[in-house]
Amino acid sequence: MTDTAPAGRGLLRPALIAVIAVALVLLGGGLAVALGIGRTTEPSADSVDAGFSRDMSRHHLQGVEMANLAPDRSTDPEIRQLAFDISSTQTNQAGRMEGWLSLWGLPPSGGETMAWMEGTGHSGHTMEMGENDLMPGMATEDELTALRDLSGTAFDVEFLRLMIRHHQGGKEMAVYAAEHAETATVRRLAGTIADTQTAEVTTMARMLSARGGSPLPAP
């Protein structure tokens, strides 16, 4: 019997097997992380890994809150796209950090804010606002209330001013975690956050200047 199979079938089969193999390796790696295989100890509640995950996820969620105001208050396509990018990225990153805390058996909140950043001048940093203690760069409730009342160009300018300061405050935490966290995945995410926020601050400073605004003092 003559074999009428396409000539390329012999080439496709090894390629398909290779793709499946890679997928299985990735799946196995994900399961290993979920099951704790290959790890010796989990980060403790007072570790850099846990402290960064707790504090940066909360820091991010305020950034998301501000970004989510833009669709209803700005008509500027560039502002709206920036806000969408910030909201999407920081929501994803906050979810990853909260997921790590759950995986480590640690609560998503609690502990002294930024106590994990030894020797930076921000260790144990708080502002006297009860449960709403602010980390560097975070907006006060009065600032958020004022932002919610703005629209158009006035909103765009104040949004950029607050978000630039917000990014500047978060960057210091990310740089510290990228250098001192014990877990490689935490270090990688922290490095990504530091790089992204540095680039976005440059972009937002340009946008703010183009709209006639000036930045707030750095935190």
Written description of the protein model:
The protein is mainly α. It has a single domain, classed as Ferritin. The chain contains seven helices and no strands. Helix 6 (152-180) runs antiparallel to helix 7. The longest helix is centred in the C-terminal third of the chain and has 29 residues, at 152-180. The protein starts with 8 loop residues before the first helix and ends in a 9-residue tail after the last helix.
SSE layout and pairings?
Elements: H1 9-35, H2 48-67, H3 70-73, H4 77-103, H5 141-148, H6 152-180, H7 184-210
Helix pairs in contact: 2-4, 2-6, 6-7
**General form:** elongated
How much of the sequence is in beta strands?
Answer: under 5%
Q: For the record, give the distance between the C-alpha atoms at the N and C termini, rounded to a whole number.
A: 79 Å
Give the mean pLDDT: 84
Total strands: 0
If you consult CATH, what is the topology? Ferritin
The domain tally reads 1
Evaluate the radius of gyration: 22 Å
Largest sheet geometry: none
